[in-house]
């Protein structure tokens, strides 16, 4: 039978994009997506690994990245990192670390060519403040943020530029950040100060409390120049070593806008992280879309469903927004549909995977019941195991059933649709999506 594509990838977040661009090195590939998912909503920072010690409390984070990967391979047998490392016969830790680094370095170089440069380290995690007046330990983030790595600001005067009513911008939050960093023994500042930005009184009509719409305004070169000049005026004469700005340095013109700031302020000004929806997540997603186009991957908009009765998938159905539908065939498929936010994993009477109806697991436990509270506790500092629910896979990333049998011979799964890890607790969100996506693309291309 003549197939429409060699490989069809379902989903275009980090996992789907990595799968598609890797498969597209040798195959004809399409990505089908019903929209944007967690990747576009995320902070845009890449957590590769960041927890030390065994599961349970007290939570020990902030470790160096290599130690945290070693911890996962040693203690987390169902984590996708551990599953992918099973194929190595020698030193699993060295071989897996080298594999994820090779995939990551290539991917960050691809992202830079698509206009979003990432910086960070494969050895030590970095610490970036966020809008809530707390901080995030992560491994790589967009280049307009890295000079704000708090571990480098010991003993310095730190200034937060914000807007009245946004969380970081008040005395309590600013001192809260300072206190928790000191209490964790991470960083002590000489001073922590804050000041107001006010664009409206300078004739720029905008919603100052909505960082993403401000970032969108910066995509207009005239607005960007004006906003930069207001920031210069605000900072003029102020005493500080490093100033933090909300993430407003553009979305689709991020590369130009961040360069404009860098040319003027050097490393003295950086962006802090913001919760969803944040400009950095969208910048990342737009760069992924660019990469797909650059690599000749066809992007098809629509929601995928499948009614398959054999152990090989031949076709999928795609429903479009205009009500029409189409069937497409391929030799192999990659499922990269995400978890709850993207509806990759759903709960209607029972928990299951949404496109192929695959069973879902927490560890070895096949989850059949539907009550979410069975997998959540009311202590926010506990690990919430619901977040590790997902599809279980073999070491070629093919979904398996409760007896460990491969369900479909030509289906591979990647990213947050997988079980065995909890991105919040393990701090491996983007790292897992990236490495499983790349490997699923390679496996699907044969
Ligand atoms: C709010 C939030 C903040 C986060 N912050 C961080 C962070 O700071 N650092 C970090 O490392 N991780 C973070 N994470 C985790 C990280 O974002 C995810 O692990 C990662 O983005 C998952 O990527 P993915 O490609 O697996 O899924 P997604 O990005 O969710 O992509 C799923 C794709 O599948 C598509 N899809 C789903 N069902 C169908 C269907 N039936 N038909 C067609 N298409 C379909 C969706 O439209 C979407 O394109 C965060 C997650 C969330 C939710």
Structure, briefly:
With 446 residues, the protein is of the alpha/beta class.
Q: Helical percent range? A: 25-40%
Low-confidence stretches: none
Estimated share of beta-strand residues: 15-25%
Task: Give the name of the CATH architecture of the largest domain.
Answer: 3-Layer(bba) Sandwich
Radius of gyration, in Å, reads 22 Å
Number of separate domains? 2
Mean pLDDT value: 91
Would you identify the CATH H-level superfamily of the largest domain? Answer: FAD/NAD(P)-binding domain
Q: Can you list the ligands bound to this structure?
A: flavin-adenine dinucleotide
Q: Strand count, sense and closure of the main sheet?
A: 7 strands, mixed
CATH-defined topology of the largest domain: FAD/NAD(P)-binding domain
Number of helices: 13
State the separation between the terminal residues, measured CA to CA.
18 Å
Give the beta-strand count: 21
CATH class of the largest domain: Alpha Beta
Q: Which outline best applies?
A: globular
Q: Structural class given helices, strands, pairing? A: alpha/beta
